[in-house]
C-alpha cells in the first residue's frame, strides 16, 4: 500500500501541490443488534480506501476513493489538485500548515482476545444474557421495559499516513462498544429512558470485563426506582453534586468543544457552530481554581485513543482548563499556523472518505482528593444528580441543559429521597465557577462526538470524578 | 465486475446455498463538496465510491454486509461468508418473504439529469451564494455546497431489478451580521435549473440583517411562529418515529396511536418519493418495491406507519415501500400547506416568538416526546402583529406531540429543507403553534 501512497504524493507534487498527505485507512467491523430480546440483522463490513489532501496555490483540496488502482488514484489526484487550485480563487489568504518535524512511527495494539475468535453465536448470546437479566430485574421491580435495544460493535482501524514532508506512521487500533437504550414504563408513573454507552480501544477482553448482564440488571433496578419512587421538585437554589457521567458530558460539551481552534476560526460555523471563546481567551478565567480539564488521546484502552493523529503528529495530553483558566486549544496544523503555534495532534477523521478535522479524544475533569462521602458531608441542602437523560447546548457552547435521571435530595450531608428529573439550565462560566470541590473517583463513559460536514461521529471518552457546585439555580421537574 | 454481474453472482451463490431471500444493491457515487467559512473556501472535497450492499434472510435469520472488493473473487467470497453468517444466526426477528417481482418502475424516477460536479461550476455557485448574502449586509458567510451524482443497481431474489441514476444539489448557508446575529438558509434540489444558490444567500443575509444585535429573551409561554427550517426538524422527528420498526420496538411516541389524533387538524404529513426531479425522489425501495406516496398524518390523525414487508406482515397491512436495510424509513417528507402568507401569520400573533432555525434536539423520552431544542439564527419577538426585537439564549422545552396539536395555522409558501439537522428532505411551511414553552439558563 505504501507504494500507492508514494505514487499519490509524487503525482500531486508534480501537478503543483505544495503539500500532500496520503492516507490509507481500513475499518473492519462486525455488529450485532438485539431489539426487545430478538436478534436483528448481523452485519460485517470492510470500509477501506485512500484519501489525499493537498495544498495547491494556497487552496486546500481533499479527496478519497475506495477504488485503489493507479488509474483511479491518478484521476482522483488530478481532481483534488484542480479543486484546490479553483478553491484558492475564493481565498483572501493562502492556507498554510504550521511546521513540524516529520514523525516516523508504528503502533499496533496488543490484544488478549482477538475479535475473530468470538463467533456470531457467542456475540448474540453475550447480548441475550444481558437482556434476560434486564427483563428479570424489571419484573422483580414491578415495571415494564417497553422498548430495549442492545447493540455490540467490534472494529479494527488500520491507518498508514504519509506526507510530502516525510512523515510516515502506521497504526492498528481495535475498538469494542456496547450501546443500550432502555425505555421503562410503570402504571401511573409514565415512561423513563436510559442510554448506556461503553467503549474501549481493546480486544474482546474489554467486553467480558464490563460484565454487561450485571451492569444492565443494576441499571434497570435503578431505573425502576427512579420511575416508582422519585418525587417532583420545585425550582430552587441549592448546592449540587454532579456524578462522573454528568461531569463527563459537561467537560465534553462546555470545555472540549469551545476549545476547538477550528470553531474559533469559523470553520464549523454553518454546522456544529462556533465558540464563546475569543482568540485572546487563553488565560481567561471561566472556572474556579479547583477545576482542571484535560483532553488526552494517550490513555491506554480509552475509546478515543490514538497514537498519531491523521496529519502524522504524535498525540499528547492537553490541559484545556488549568486552575479554572483556559489553558490550551485543540489544534491541527492549519489552525496552529493561524495561532502562530504548533499542532498538538488533534486532527482526526472517522473513515478513509472523511477529511481530518480538529477533534477531542478523551475529555475529563482531573480528579481531586475528596471521597464522595466527603463531598456530600459538606452539603446542608442540595441535590445529587448522578446521571442524565436529556441534554443540549447552544452552538457557541455557552447555554446548556442537563435533565437528571437518577437524582437525590441531600440534607445535612446525607442522601435522602429520590428527585424526579431536576433540570440544570446554566451558562458555561456559571457552571465551572460554581465548582468548589472535586472528588477523586475518576470514571469514564463512551460517546460518539458529532462534527464536520459530512457528519463524522468519532469515538471519545467523557469523564471525571464527582464534583460539588455551590448555590446553583435548579429547575423543577418537567 | 459490472453492477449487473455483481448482482447475478451474489444471487446465484445465495440460491445455491438454499437461502430464501437476497438483496444486492450496487451503489456508485461521485460528489464534490465546497466548504465555506469567512467568505472563503476552506476546503474542496472530491469523493468517489463504489460498493455493493448485500442483505440476505434465510427464513428470518438475517445478515448484511457492504463489499468494496468488487472483483469476482471478492464478491463470491463475501456472499459465501454472508450465507454462513445467516445460517449460523439465531433468527427470530421480524420476517416476511421478499416481494415477488418483476416490477415496473416509473421511468421519470429512475433517471434524472446529471449534475455538474466540476470545480469551476461548484466554486462559482459558492461564490454567487456568498456574494448575495454579503449584498444583504452580511459581514461573513459560512456553509457547504454538495453536488452529487449516483447510480444504484438493485436486484433481489424476488425478481425485482432496477437501475436508478440520480443527482442532487444541496447548499446550506449561514450569514453573520457582526453584531451577534445570524441567518441560515438552504437550497436543495434534484434538478440543476431549480438550484438557487443566490436566493439562499439572499435569504441568509436578509435573516442575518433582521437579527440585528440580539438581546436576552425572556422565558415563558408564547405563541411560536416556526420557520420552515425549524418546523422541518420537528416534522422529521414525526417521520422518523412513524417507522414501524421504532413503533414495534416500543420507543416511538407514535406507538399505539394509529387512527388517533396526534396533531391539530391543520397538520398533515406524508412521505412522497414519487415527485420526479425531487431531491428525495426514489423509484424503488430496498426490497425492490415501486415507491408510493404514504399519508402518515392526515388532518391531525395518524393514518399510517411506514413499512417494509416484514413490519407490514406483523401489523397486518401492505408494505408502504419504505424498506431500508433494517428499519423502514421516509424518503421525502411533505407537510401539507396552509392558506396564509407569512405576513398574515405574523400579524395574527399578539405576543409571540419567531424561530427561524433550531439545532440540538434531544429527548427526555422518545416514547412520550418530551424534548428540548435550541433556537439559533434569527429569533425575534412578535409584538402586536409585528416582528419586533431580536432575541437570543432561549430554548424550546416542550412536548413534540403537544406542539403538533398546538399548530393553528400554516403558510401556503413551503420550502424544501435538508441540512445538518434535518436528515430527510422535508417540504415545510411556516407554522404558528400555541403555548410553546421557552426556557433559559437561570445563571
In short:
Chain A is an alpha+beta fold and 478 residues long. Chain A is built from ten helices and 25 strands. In chain A, 23% of the residues lie in helices and 38% in strands.
Topology:
The complex is a heterodimer of chains A (478) and B (443).
Chain A: H1 2-14, E1 19-35, E2 38-39, E3 42-56, E4 59-65, H2 70-88, E5 104-108, H3 120-141, E6 144-163, E7 168-186, E8 190-200, H4 205-209, H5 212-229, E9 236-242, H6 244-256, H7 261-264, E10 293-295, E11 318-322, E12 325-326, H8 333-338, E13 347-348, E14 357-358, E15 362-365, H9 372-377, E16 381-385, E17 388-393, E18 399-404, E19 407-411, E20 414-418, E21 423-427, H10 428-433, E22 435-438, E23 443-451, E24 456-464, E25 467-474
Parallel strand pairs in A: 5-7, 9-16, 15-24
Antiparallel strand pairs in A: 1-2, 1-3, 1-6, 3-4, 6-7, 7-8, 9-25, 10-11, 10-15, 11-12, 13-14, 16-19, 17-18, 18-21, 19-20, 22-25, 23-24
Helix pairs in contact in A: 1-2, 3-5
Chain B: H1 3-16, E1 21-37, E2 40-58, E3 61-67, H2 72-88, H3 107-110, H4 119-135, E4 140-156, E5 161-176, E6 182-189, H5 197-211, E7 215-216, E8 220-226, H6 228-241, H7 244-249, E9 269-271, E10 294-298, E11 301-302, H8 309-315, E12 333-335, H9 342-347, E13 351-365, E14 370-383, E15 386-392, E16 395-399, H10 400-405, E17 407-419, E18 422-439
Parallel strand pairs in B: 7-15, 8-13, 12-18
Antiparallel strand pairs in B: 1-2, 1-4, 2-3, 4-5, 5-6, 8-18, 9-10, 9-12, 10-11, 13-14, 14-15, 14-16, 16-18, 17-18
Helix pairs in contact in B: 1-2, 4-5
State the low-pLDDT regions of chain A, or none.
none
Helix content bin of chain A: 10-25%
| Low confidence ranges of chain B | none
Bulk shape of chain B: globular
* Count of alpha/pi helices of chain B: 10
Instruction: Report the major sheet of chain A.
Output: 8 strands, mixed
Query: How many beta strands in the DSSP annotation of chain A?
Result: 25
Radius of gyration of chain A: 24 Å
Task: Give the termini distance of chain A in whole angstroms.
Answer: 56 Å
**Beta-strand level of the residues of chain A, as a percent range?**
35-45%
Instruction: Summarize the largest interface: chains and residue counts.
Output: A-B, 94 and 85 residues
Major sheet strand order of chain B? 3-2-1-4-5-6
What series of H and E elements makes up the topology of chain B?
HEEEHHHEEEHEEHHEEEHEHEEEEHEE
Number of strand segments of chain B: 18
Terminal CA distance of chain B: 62 Å
Structural class computed from helices and strand pairing of chain A: alpha+beta
Describe the largest sheet of chain B: 6 strands, antiparallel
Tally of alpha and pi helices of chain A: 10
Mean pLDDT across all amino acids of chain A: 96
Amino acid at each position: 500500500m505504501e507504494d500507492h501512497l508514494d505514487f499519490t504524493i509524487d503525482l500531486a507534487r508534480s501537478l503543483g501541490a505544495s503539500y500532500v498527505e496520503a492516507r490509507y485507512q481500513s475499518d473492519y467491523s462486525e455488529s450485532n443488534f438485539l431489539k426487545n430480546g430478538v436478534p436483528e440483522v448481523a452485519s460485517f463490513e470492510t470500509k477501506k480506501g485512500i484519501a489525499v489532501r493537498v495544498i495547491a496555490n494556497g487552496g486546500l483540496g481533499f479527496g478519497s476513493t475506495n477504488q485503489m488502482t493507479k488509474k483511479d488514484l491518478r484521476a482522483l489526484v488530478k481532481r483534488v489538485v484542480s479543486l484546490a487550485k479553483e478553491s484558492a480563487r475564493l481565498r483572501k489568504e493562502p492556507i498554510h500548515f504550521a511546521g513540524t518535524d516529520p514523525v516516523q512511527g508504528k503502533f499496533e495494539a496488543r490484544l488478549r482476545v482477538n475479535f475473530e475468535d468470538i463467533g456470531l453465536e457467542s456475540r448474540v448470546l453475550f447480548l441475550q444474557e444481558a437482556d434476560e437479566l434486564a427483563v428479570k430485574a424489571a419484573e422483580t421491580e414491578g415495571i415494564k421495559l417497553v422498548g430495549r435495544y442492545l447493540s455490540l460493535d467490534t472494529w479494527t482501524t488500520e491507518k498508514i499516513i504519509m506526507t510530502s514532508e516525510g512523515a510516515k506512521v502506521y497504526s492498528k487500533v481495535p475498538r469494542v462498544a456496547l450501546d443500550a437504550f432502555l425505555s421503562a414504563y410503570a402504571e401511573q408513573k409514565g415512561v423513563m429512558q436510559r442510554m448506556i454507552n461503553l467503549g474501549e480501544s481493546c480486544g474482546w477482553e474489554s467486553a467480558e470485563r464490563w460484565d454487561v448482564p450485571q451492569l444492565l440488571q443494576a441499571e434497570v433496578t435503578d431505573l425502576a426506582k427512579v420511575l416508582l419512587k422519585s418525587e417532583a421538585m420545585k425550582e430552587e437554589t441549592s448546592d449540587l453534586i454532579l456524578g462522573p457521567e454528568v461531569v463527563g458530558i459537561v467537560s465534553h460539551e462546555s470545555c472540549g468543544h469551545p476549545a476547538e481552534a477550528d470553531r474559533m476560526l469559523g470553520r464549523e460555523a454553518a454546522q456544529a457552530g462556533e465558540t464563546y471563546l475569543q482568540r485572546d481567551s487563553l488565560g481567561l478565567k471561566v472556572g474556579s481554581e479547583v477545576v482542571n480539564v484535560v483532553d488526552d488521546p494517550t490513555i491506554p484502552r480509552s475509546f478515543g485513543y490514538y497514537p498519531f493523529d491523521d496529519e502524522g503528529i504524535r498525540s499528547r495530553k492537553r490541559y484545556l482548563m488549568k486552575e479554572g483558566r483556559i489553558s490550551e486549544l485543540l489544534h491541527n496544523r492549519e489552525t496552529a499556523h493561524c495561532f502562530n503555534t504548533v499542532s498538538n495532534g488533534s486532527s482526526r477523521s472517522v473513515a478513509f472518505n472523511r477529511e481530518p478535522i480538529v477533534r477531542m479524544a478523551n475529555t475529563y475533569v482531573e480528579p481531586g482528593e475528596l471521597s464522595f462521602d466527603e463531598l456530600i458531608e459538606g452539603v446542608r441542602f442540595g441535590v445529587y444528580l448522578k446521571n442524565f437523560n436529556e441534554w443540549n447546548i447552544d452552538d457557541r457552547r455557552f447555554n446548556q441543559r442537563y435533565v437528571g435521571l437518577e437524582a437525590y435530595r441531600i440534607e445535612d450531608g446525607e442522601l435522602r429521597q429520590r428527585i424526579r428529573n431536576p433540570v440544570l439550565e446554566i451558562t458555561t462560566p456559571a457552571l465551572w465557577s460554581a465548582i468548589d470541590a472535586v472528588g477523586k473517583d475518576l470514571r469514564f463513559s463512551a460517546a460518539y462526538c458529532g462534527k464536520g460536514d459530512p457528519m463524522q461521529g468519532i469515538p471519545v471518552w467523557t469523564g471525571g470524578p464527582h464534583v460539588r457546585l455551590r448555590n446553583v439555580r435548579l429547575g423543577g421537574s418537567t | 465486475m459490472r453492477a449487473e454481474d455483481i448482482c447475478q453472482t451474489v444471487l446465484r451463490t445465495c440460491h445455491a446455498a438454499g437461502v430464501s431471500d437476497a438483496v444486492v444493491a450496487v451503489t456508485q457515487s461521485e460528489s464534490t463538496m465546497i466548504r465555506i467559512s469567512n467568505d472563503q473556501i476552506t476546503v474542496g472535497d472530491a469523493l468517489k465510491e463504489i460498493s455493493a450492499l448485500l442483505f440476505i434472510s434465510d427464513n428470518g435469520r438475517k445478515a448484511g454486509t457492504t463489499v468494496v472488493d468488487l472483483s469476482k473473487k471478492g464478491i463470491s467470497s463475501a456472499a459465501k461468508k454472508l450465507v454462513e453468517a445467516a445460517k449460523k444466526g439465531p433468527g427470530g426477528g421480524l420476517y416476511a418473504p421478499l416481494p415477488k417481482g418483476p416490477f415496473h418502475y416509473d421511468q421519470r424516477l429512475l433517471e434524472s439529469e446529471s449534475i455538474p460536479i466540476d470545480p469551476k461550476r461548484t466554486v462559482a455557485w459558492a461564490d454567487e451564494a456568498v456574494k448575495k448574502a454579503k449584498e444583504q449586509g452580511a459581514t461573513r458567510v459560512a456553509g457547504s455546497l454538495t453536488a452529487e451524482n449516483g447510480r444504484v443497481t438493485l436486484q433481489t431474489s424476488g425478481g425485482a431489478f432496477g437501475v436508478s441514476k440520480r443527482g442532487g444539489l444541496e447548499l446550506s448557508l449561514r450569514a453573520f451580521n457582526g453584531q451577534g446575529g445570524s441567518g441560515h438558509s438552504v437550497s436543495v434540489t434534484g434538478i440543476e435549473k431549480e438550484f438557487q444558490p443566490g436566493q439562499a444567500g439572499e435569504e441568509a443575509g436578509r435573516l442575518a440583517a433582521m437579527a440585528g444585535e440580539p438581546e436576552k429573551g425572556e422565558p415563558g409561554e408564547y405563541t411560536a411562529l416556526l420557520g420552515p427550517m425549524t418546523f422541518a426538524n420537528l416534522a422529521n422527528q414525526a417521520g422518523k418515529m412513524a417507522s414501524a420498526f421504532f413503533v414495534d420496538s416500543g420507543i416511538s411516541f407514535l406507538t399505539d396511536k394509529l387512527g388517533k389524533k396526534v396533531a391539530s387538524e391543520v397538520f398533515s404529513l406524508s412521505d412522497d418519493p414519487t415527485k420526479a426531479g425531487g431531491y428525495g425522489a426514489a423509484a424503488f425501495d430496498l426490497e425492490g418495491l415501486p415507491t408510493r406516496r404514504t399519508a402518515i398524518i392526515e388532518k391531525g390523525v395518524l393514518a399510517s406507519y411506514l413499512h417494509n414487508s416484514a413490519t407490514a406482515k406483523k401489523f397486518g397491512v401492505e408494505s408502504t415501500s419504505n424498506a431500508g436495510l433494517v428499519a423502514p424509513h421516509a424518503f421525502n417528507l411533505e407537510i401539507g400547506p396552509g392558506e396564509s402568507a407569512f405576513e398574515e401569520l405574523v400579524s395574527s400573533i399578539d405576543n409571540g416568538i419567531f424561530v427561524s432555525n433550531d439545532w440540538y434536539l434531544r429527548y427526555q423520552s422518545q416514547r412520550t416526546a418530551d424534548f428540548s431544542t435550541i433556537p439559533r439564527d434569527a429569533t425575534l419577538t412578535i409584538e402586536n402583529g409585528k416582528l419586533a426585537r431580536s432575541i437570543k439564549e432561549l430554548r424550546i422545552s416542550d412536548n413534540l406531540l403537544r406542539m403538533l396539536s398546538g399548530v393553528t395555522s400554516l403558510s401556503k409558501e413551503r420550502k424544501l429543507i435538508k441540512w445538518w439537522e434535518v436528515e430527510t428532505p422535508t417540504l415545510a411551511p411556516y407554522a404558528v403553534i400555541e403555548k410553546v414553552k421557552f426556557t433559559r439558563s437561570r445563571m
